Amino acid sequence: MAIDFTLAPEHEEIRARVRAFIRETVIPAVEEFEGEREAPREEYLRTIFGLRRTARAEGLWLPHMPKEWGGMGLGHVELAMVQAEAAKTRLGPWILNCAAPDEGNMHTLLHWGTDEQRERYLRPLTEGVATSCFAMTEPEVAGSDPTLIRTRAVRDGDEWVIDGHKWFISNARRATFAILIARTEDDVPEGARGATTAFLVDLPQEGWNDVREVETMHGSTGHSEIVISGLRVPDGQILGGRGNGHRLGQYRLGPARLAHCMRWISQAEHALDMMVDRALNRYSHGSLLAEKQGVQWMIADSAMELYQCKLMVLHAASKIDRGEDFRTEVSMAKHFVAGSLNRIVDRAIQVHGALGYSTDTPLAGMFQHARWARFADGADEIHQMRIAERTIEAYRSTGSTSSATGGLPL
Questions:
Q1: How far apart, in whole angstroms, are the C-alpha atoms of residue 401 and residue 407?
Q2: Strands 177-183, 132-135: parallel, antiparallel or unpaired by DSSP?
Q3: β-strand pairing of 219-234 with 159-170
Q4: What pLDDT, on the 0 to 100 scale, is given for residue 2?
C-alpha cells in the first residue's frame, strides 16, 4: 500500500496561487478594517465582495465543488492544502466560497437534492449570490445526539406544519434558506434513527422567528436562536427523502468535520510561527527565549502535534477520496486537531506573556475560537465514545484492532 501525499505539479501550482492570493491580496485588503469599528460598512462590504469576484476570476473559487458546478474539482487531499492556505486569515475560506456552513450544505445538496432542488438552492450558493444555514441543534436536548430532536413536522395536506426550537444556528441571520431537521415519524421511538426528515426552508418566512444572536465568549458571531411556530413547508421541499434526516446530517458532518480540521491546522501553524518568532526576538535573563529549554520544549511539543495533525487529516482525506469508510479516522482527526489547536495557541500565548493575553496580537481571539473547536461538530467525549466502540467491534470481528487504527501497513 503506497502512501504518498506529494501533490501533483498542477495542484502544487494551485497551492502557490492560493497562498499568494491570500498573502498578497486578501490579508492587506482586510487588515485595514481589523479593529476599525468606525469603518464604513459599505466600504467593508464593497472590499470583501470585490475580493470574492477576484477569486472567481482567478479560478480560485469553490475548491470543493465539481467543475460542472463552477468549482475547482479538487479531491479532499488537495482541498486540505487549499483550506490550510485560505484559513491564514478569517475571511479566506469565505472569499473562496468554501466556508462553513455553506460548504457542507453544498455537498449535501449535490448528493441528496433533486435536479430541481439543486438548481433552486445549490446553484445560487455556487454563484455566491445566496447563503444558507443548517438547523439541527436544539437547547432542550443534547446537540451531540440528533436522534433526540424535538422539533416536529406534521403533515397537513400537501404541506408540513413545523413547530420547534433551535439554537446555535450559524449564519441564520444572513441565510436565504435553511436545511431544517425535524421529527416526522411517530412510529420510531425517541433515540432511534429514522425519525427525522430534512426540509428546505426559504428565508425569511412566517413561522421562522430569529429571536437573538447567542452571545459567546468571542462575542455575537452569527449563531442564532430560532423559535419555529406554525411554519408551513410544501411536501416538495423535503430533502433526501422522508425519514432520512439523521443519515443526511451524518453524511454532511463527516467531510465538514475534516474541513474544520484543515482550517484549524492553518491557525495552529500560524500560532507556532508566532511562537518561534517571539522566541527568536525576545531577550530575557541573559539569553533569547529560543535558547531556554522550557521554551524549546513548548516549541517541540507544538511541532510534533502539528505534524500528527497534518498526517491524520491527509490520511482521512485520502480515505474519503478512495470511497472507503472514513468515520473512525475523521473522528480521531477531529478530536486530536481540536485539542492540539487549543494547546498550541495556549503555548504561543505563554511565550508572548502579557502581550499574548492582550488583543495587540491575534492570539487572544484565536484562543477564544479554539475553545469552540472541542465541542463543535461533536464533543471530544462523543468522538472518544465512537472511536472506542469501533475499536472494540474491530477486535470482536477480526481478533485485531488494526482496522480501527487506520488500517495502515504496519
A1: 9
A2: parallel
A3: antiparallel
A4: 60
> Distance of CA 97 to CAs 6, 51, 257, 289, Å?
25, 11, 17, 40
Helices (H), 322-379: 327-352, 354-357, 363-373
Query: Which domains are delineated in the chain?
Result: 9-99 (1.10.540.10), 132-239 (2.40.110.10), 247-405 (1.20.140.10)
pLDDT in tens, 38-85: 568 889 899 999 999 999 999 999 999 999 999 999 999 999 999 999
Looking at residue 38, what is its pLDDT?
58
Residue 17 Rama label (left phi>0; alpha psi -120 to 50; beta): alpha
Q: For residue 9, how many C-alpha atoms fall within 13 Å in the half-sphere facing its CB?
A: 0
Q: Answer yes or no: pTM beyond 0.85.
A: yes
- From CA 200, how far away is CA 108, in angstroms rounded? 12
In this predicted model, what pLDDT tens digit does every residue of 281-329 receive, in sequence order?
Answer: 999 999 999 999 999 999 999 999 999 999 999 999 999 999 999 999 9
| Cα–Cα distance measured from residue 371 to residue 362, given in angstroms and rounded to the nearest whole number | 15
Longest Cα–Cα distance of the chain, Å, equals 80
Burial class (CB in 10 A: 0-12, 13-18, 19+), 366: buried
Q: Which residue do the cell numbers 479538487 mark?
A: 74
Could you give the CA distance from residue 317 to residue 309 in angstroms, rounded to a whole number?
A: 12
Cell 476599525, residue located:
36
The dihedrals phi and psi of 375, each to the nearest 5 degrees, come to: -130, -10
Task: Give the contacts of 206 (CB within 8 A, at least 6 positions apart).
Answer: 230, 231, 232
Between CA 25 and CA 51 the distance in angstroms is: 8
> In the 8-state DSSP scheme, what is residue 146?
G
Q: Tell me: the pLDDT tens digits for 214-246?
A: 988 877 678 999 999 999 999 999 999 999 999
Higher pLDDT, 21 or 377: 21
C-beta separation of 380 from 339 below 8 A: yes
Q: What is the DSSP string of 281-312?
A: H-EETTEEGGGSHHHHHHHHHHHHHHHHHHHH
